[in-house]
Amino acid sequence: MPDLDFALRLSAPESTLAVGGLVLLMLGAFMGEKSARLISILSVALLVAATAVTVTGPLGMAFNGAYVADPLAVYGKALIFLSSAVAVVLGDGWMRRAKIAKFEYPVLIVLASAGMGMMASSGDLISLYVGIELHSLALYVLAAYHRDDLKASEAGLKYFVLGALSSGLLLYGASLIYGFTGSMRFDEIAAYAAANESTGLIFGLVFLICGLAFKVSAAPFHMWTPDVYEGAPTPVVALFATAPKVAAMVLIARTLEGAFGGSHDQWAQVLILIALISFAVGAFGGLVQKDLQRLLAYSSIANIGYALLGIAAGTTAGVQAMLVFMTLYVIDQFGFFAILLSLSRGGKPIRRIADLAGLRKDKPVTAIALTVLSLSVLGMPPLAGFWAKFYVFGAAADAGYWMVGAAGLVASVVAGFYYLRIIKLMWFDPTPEGVGPTDASPIEARTIAWASAAFSFPLVIVAIGWIDHFAGIAATGFGAG
Predict the structure, then answer these.
(1) Would you state the pLDDT for residue 462?
(2) Which residue would you say has higher pLDDT here, 81 or 165?
(3) Can you give the pLDDT at residue 481?
(4) How many whole angstroms separate alpha carbon 147 and alpha carbon 180?
């Protein structure tokens, strides 16, 4: 019983979300659709409570090593749960304005967050898969949440079909790993891999990486990303671009560094190849986009390539750099999507890049915020995106991969075209004739957009030291390197 009590206290964040999610589901079922606003408020409170439980809870291992609570898991889960709470806030207002508000939306995010928390704390291949599937099933439904919209239904179907394919790759890799090592636990797999050279084990690892790369939409496993970003409801895409990517990146770091730390030379080659392809696809694919959400999809593909460089370094500094990058990336992404949610004309959302022309006249503060965020993602110093890339490129260079870092810099220059095009349209192009003024911005979207821009500059100059400090604790406590 003492062991069970300790295990339950370790897994309290996920238990809080699972039990709370089921309670909210029952509450919504009994109260009906009128409960959507209340359930959203309670969901945000639940996610904040789970964050508090995470950062104040004990550290250790439970369930025979299947669940790990260490500083890396704490950092990852705090970022995941807070990101999910912001997605609920953005979605609540948008769903009510679109007249499709239902209590299932925040409940699905809560349940997905429980799965993402499990991913961050996975200690073996079984908990890894359970966490991935728990969050993926909820995300499949969220992608098709606007069921009367043809593009949303298409997005949900594509995400589900390709997600099933990625699960097959991941399971095949896991079965090979188990077959050669005789264990599911990461620490026992690491011990076997250190004592035995096995080609079959490397094959299993490659399949496992391919399955995980799909979850972060890294190229060439990105095929679902542009269509899902374009078709799914905008607040759902804001969630897709943030919390699940953090969970998957933490899981990749934990799996590769924890179970295959001794095989770094083998898996680093795979990650570097994926990163290089992601640079190219993200940078050049974004050049021809006309839809803002598709543009952000290609931007996310390139940015995930940058984050993978930190893990490929195979050092404590590399994991720390990845965590810093993902934290700053999440804040910038929420700013972009909040601006999208705040812009509309005649009740119709502004989705085409060309529709941003002349925005400085109607929404000068929003234009400033979007300019700051665009320059940040571009990597302009001293904005947040500059520090994010500075950390991952520095970690890659220190590990000897300076040529790959140089390729990332070239990709950033190419991608700069579409960010600068947005700035040019807003500030220098006139508003097209016959186009009416933009609508009043919803307060929640406007507030999050302005707060994200303010953080990207100038607040990041003060905050980067704190983020680096806590990311360093997380990476060191994890024991990479």
Answers:
(1) 92
(2) 81
(3) 36
(4) 45
- Ranges 136-145, 398-407, 418-427, 428-437: which has the least confidence: 428-437
Which residues have C-beta within 8 Å of that of residue 394, sequence separation ≥ 6? 317, 321
Amino acid at 133: E
- Res 441: pLDDT: 80
Pick from 307, 237, 285, 258: which is nearest to 91 by CA?
A: 237
- In this prediction, residues 142-157 reach a mean pLDDT of 84
* Cα–Cα distance for residue pair 128/255, rounded to 1 Å: 9
Burial class of residue 291 (count of CB atoms within 10 Å of its CB; 0-12, 13-18, 19+): middle
Q: Within its chain, how far is the Cα of 312 from the centroid?
A: 18
Pair 229, 297: CB distance under 8 Å = yes
pLDDT at 94 over 90: no
Question: What type of residue sits at position 480?
Answer: A
SS3 track for 271-321: HHHHHHHHHHHHHHHHHHCCEHHHHHHHHHHHHHHHHHHHHHCCCHHHHHH
* Both structure tokens of 205: 């690892």
Q: Between 12 and 350, where is the model more confident?
A: 12
Q: For strand 60-62 and strand 67-69, is the pairing parallel, antiparallel, or unpaired?
A: antiparallel
- Listing DSSP states for 160-204 in one string gives HHHHHHHHHHHHHHHHHHHHHHS--BHHHHHHHHHH---HHHHHH
Single-letter code of the amino acid located at 146:
H
For the segment 38-54, what is each residue's pLDDT rounded down to a tens digit? 999 999 999 999 999 99
Tokens 């700013």 appear where?
335
DSSP 430: P
* Cα separation, 93 vs 113, whole angstroms: 20
User: Mean pLDDT for the chain?
Assistant: 89
**pTM of the complete model beyond 0.90:** yes
End-to-end Cα spacing for the chain? 36
* Confidence tier at 2 by pLDDT (50, 70, 90): low
Buried b (16+ CB within 10 A) or exposed e, 75-114: bbbbbbbbbbbbbbbbbbbbbebeebbbbbbbbbbbbbbb
> What Rg do the C-alpha atoms of the chain give, in angstroms?
21
Question: Band of the pLDDT at 479, cuts 50, 70, 90?
Answer: very low
Separation of alpha carbons 443 and 461, rounded Å: 26
- The residue whose two tokens read 């009906």 is 32
Closest CA to 333 of 305, 292, 381: 292
Name the token pair of 68: 């790990």
What residue type is assigned to position 58 of the chain?
P
Inter-residue contact 351 to 389 (CB < 8 Å) = no
Mean pLDDT within 306-333: 93
Phi-psi region of 14 (alpha: psi -120 to 50; beta: other; left: phi over 0): alpha
